[in-house]
Amino acid sequence: MDKHYLTPLFNPSSIVVFTGARDGGEAPTPYGRALLAALKAGAFAGPVTTLDIGMSGTLADLAQSRADLAIIALPHDQIAAALEVAGRIRCRAALVLSSGLPASDCGELLAIAKRHGVHLLGPNSQGFQRPHLQLNASASGALANPGPLGLISQSGALTASILDWAGANGVGFSAVISLGPNTSVDLPQALDFLANDGSTQSILVYMEGIRQARRFMSALRASAYAKPVVVMKAGRKPAGSKVALTHSAAIVGSDDVFEAALRRAGAVRVRSFTQLFSAAKCLASRYRPVGKRLAIITNGGGPGVLAADWANEIGLDVATLSEASRAALAPQLSSQASMSTVIDLGEEALPEHYRAALLACGSDSAADGVLAIYSPKVDIDPIEVARCVADTFRQVGKPVIANWMGDTRVRAARDVLSSATIPSFRTPESAVDAFGSIANFYRNQQLLQQTPPPLSTLGKPDTEGARLLIESVLAERRKVLTEMESKALLAAFHIPVTRTMLARNANEAMLIAAQLGYPVALKIDSPDVSHKSDVQGVALNVMTATQVRDTYNDMLAAVSRVQPGARINGVTIQPMSGKRRGREIYIGLTTDDPFGPVITFGAGGTMIELIADRSMELPPLNQFLAHRLIERSRVSEMLAEWRGTPAADLEAIEHILLRVSEMVCELPQLREMDINPIIVDDHGAVAVDARVVIDHAPPTVRDYNHLAILPYPSAHEREWPMKGGGLYTIRPIRPDDADMLQTFVRGLSQESRYFRFASAMTELPGRMLARYTLIDYDREMALVAVHRHREPDADGGFTETERIIGVSRYITNPDQTSCEFSLVVADALKGQGLGSRLMLSIMDFARSKGLSEIDGLILANNPNMLRLMTSLGFAIHPFPEDPDFKLATKPL
User: Fold this and answer.
1) Residue-wise pLDDT tens digits, 695-733
2) How far from 780 is each of 46, 446, 703, 742, CA to CA, in Å?
């Protein structure tokens, strides 16, 4: 269905209003008075009808007042009655403007809305604004200026502050949505609407918390793939937990995990609402960068240095032009100019000097974006320089950001830059910050497009053996695995570990050490000791049997003294790793509420909390994500070649990260894990110690529901025979199918395209193409039928090409129990059973997700599709809202 299900709420064609104001008198609540004033000041084009819950007349009389949206701003004791009336006159959406409504009353309102099928914004919401519709359904002040930014806020007070700031700074909005804490229409739904809203180019989000990580990540990933999303979050908590049983859980805070989730979703994180608008301004500009190298052009050394310093501080690179570019540029600049790192044009820089420098940066591959800084000079007109930069900007083809320093003398020049859609800032640092946001956006978009499967292409792990091990430990009512059990778990997933044996007395320790070979390491084995070194429970490089015996006895005595009452199973013996030039790293797991499992990486050893080197990623991982995870850590610099030590084997580390990702996906019982230290050198990596904490999996865990990001469902790939010979594969769609999908749509007949999209378009717009190919496999699924064709080439070999020959899709409806389908098949393959196979496959997937009904709209003049659905057991009904369509439904 073309219209978004929240269209009646945010794009209403008609409105009914309940404010309690009678016969021209005042409304009894401040929100009611504010609403009436806002509606009066606007020029909403549709009919607005005022209703009273105490009015006389029959329900049939009231039904004449039916509207898309009901807005309720009444005293608390009258809200439920008004919402009941709105439901009975078949309003499809409602907004309750209120504050301080008790939780019990909120629950009653949500139940009424659910019973009548009403999408409810509120209660305890300050409403929304749609400036281009001249609709101010809010208590947040005057209607905002129209513009391309969509704002979603979980704080009414901050919404009003942002609108006030934006009005003074000329920032306009396509939508302003204030959610409040008790609303039925929540953050994921509002994100989904703005992602599909044609008047919204960028989305700004202020948030304080989320309820369901999977739904949030699903909506955020879909939104960020369609358009830039900038998020500001309050409520940052200090890192660490006092009850953590592993190093990983101790050094990872909830805000760190939120940052990792946003990065994986392709969104940009900012810390203040001035940065919020700066980032959105840049992301909505004409060009986006493909890296983090910023060229800096200035007419004063000081501002250039400030910009370069801040760029280094936030992880950007200051671009240095190539030798050839500098040689070509030098004759066009004054003798005062320098081009060592920052391009300093000198105090007497003229407009043509800025033009030459901008063109040089635009054509040099060493720069991903350009910052032009101007500080006022005598006899040089800042407006002329701004005009020159604006004219040249069109030829550059890269992001250009401006910093015209000062105020009164450069105000008009800033207007020139803004009119040319060049983001302009008052300080070098804020301009660099803005470029940092769009550089982060590019990097995060790369992460967003990764959809790894739960299991990598490495050798198949012994998943069943790992599950049996965990179940046996839980059966003993234990939650902490011993070192030997932890290493057995790692070994089941083919993670290299040191040989480890448990000694229960000193004589056993000597025998085991002799068998393993000296030197050996001794470690206390106790479920009550989280960090062995803290209780003198680790001894390294023990060289003889006598030392083993004495160390064993001394260790037990020391642990009993430092931690009396600790249960001691014995002492583990293992050979020293033998990696004399190895580096110590750690790979860990912690579980966040609400994002679930998080994989961490950083510098290892006994000082892990003190060093606090932590980079993290949400599972599942693939090699690209594993590589980026390593890159973000501080220890990554130590893994390169250093002082004669060969570079560490990064592939071995990536291998372990992929294996840990497999463990996290396949074992929902995992809660915390430390593999610390892992010793890595140029010959590989080996896990020396490990500690794993487990718990019973929730009974609802199914199909990786414990993960915030659903893995690519590779298990649903199937091959089927074609009529006339050959095979085709039905599999879930991938982001890299975009070009193939566009080719498929272009190859459809005009009739087939019209039957599928109810439109005469000849190809999918970029935003729709992105929306159709990057999906989260949770609330929706798209299956493509792919045919591979082999042709002999000129070299005597074969060239294999792939093409999509059919697509079936469903999207879960807001009721979370039913879904809507669509289907299209290549014209040349109609009548061969491909449509039936695609529909049966998509229905099987919907059934596995627990959905109970599938339905879809079919054009009434599409007899072939209607016949196919009838043959598959669908019931065909008239569609009351549009006689040109039929509604096909089938219980799953």
Assistant:
1) 998 776 567 889 999 898 888 899 999 887 788 999 999
2) 34, 22, 14, 20
Residue 13 pLDDT: 92
* Nearest partner of 843 among 870, 815, 822, 864, judged by Cα: 822
Determine, yes or no, domain membership for 719.
yes
| Euclidean distance between CA atoms 685 and 660, whole angstroms | 14
Contacts of range 253-257, beta carbons closer than 8 Å, 24 or more positions apart: 254/592, 254/593, 256/614, 256/616, 257/590, 257/592, 257/595, 257/598, 257/616
pLDDT(240) > 50: no
DSSP labels for 225-254? Answer: HHS-EEEEE-----S--TT-SSHHHHH--H
Sign of the dihedral through C-alpha 179, 181, 183, 186: positive
Whole-angstrom distance, CA of residue 892 vs CA of residue 887:
16
41 phi, psi to nearest 5 deg:
-70, -25
Contact 808, 733 (CB under 8 A): no
Give the per-residue pLDDT at 295: 95
The predicted-structure confidence for 210-219, as pLDDT tens digits, reads as follows: 888 888 998 8
Q: Is the pLDDT of residue 55 over 80?
A: no
- Cα-only R_g, the chain: 32
**Is 860 within a domain?**
yes
Residue 252 clears pLDDT 70, i.e. is over it: no
Q: What angle do CA 542, 548, 551 make, to 5 degrees?
A: 90
The verdict on whether omega for the bond into residue 289 sits within 30 degrees of 0, i.e. cis, is no
Q: Which residues on adjacent β-strands are paired with residue 602?
A: 586
- In angstroms, the CA 25 to CA 19 distance is 11
| Beta-carbon-side half-sphere exposure of residue 255 (alpha carbons within 13 Å) | 15
Among residues 377, 401, 422, the one where a domain terminates is 422
Question: Any alpha helices (H) in 563-597, and if so which ranges?
Answer: none
CA 182 vs. chain centroid, Å, equals: 24
Let me know if residue 576 belongs to a domain: no
Confidence of residue 165 (pLDDT cuts 50, 70, 90): confident
Distances (CA, A) of 392 to 173, 339, 370, 383: 29, 20, 12, 14
- The mean pLDDT value of the chain amounts to 87
Q: Token match 């599909």: residue? A: 196
Cis peptide upstream of residue 423 (ω within 30 degrees of 0): no
* 386 three-state secondary structure: helix
Give the CA dihedral 372, 374, 380, 384, nearest 10 degrees: 50
3-state secondary structure of 804: strand
Q: What is the pTM of this model?
A: 0.83
- Which whole number is the average pLDDT over 237-265? 67
Give domain status of residue 38, yes or no: no
In the chain, the amino acid numbered 620 is P
Domain boundary among 366, 393, 422: 422
> Rounded to whole angstroms, how far apart are CA atoms 586 and 613?
10
The number of folded domains in the chain is: 2
Distance separating alpha carbons of residues 343 and 360, to the nearest angstrom:
11
| CA–CA separation, 351 and 345 (whole Å) | 10
Range(s) of the domain holding residue 382: 287-422
CATH code, 389: 3.40.50.261
Return the minimum-mean-pLDDT range out of 360-369, 632-641, 665-674: 632-641
Instruction: Write out pLDDT tens, residues 384-420.
Output: 999 999 999 988 888 899 999 988 888 899 889 888 8
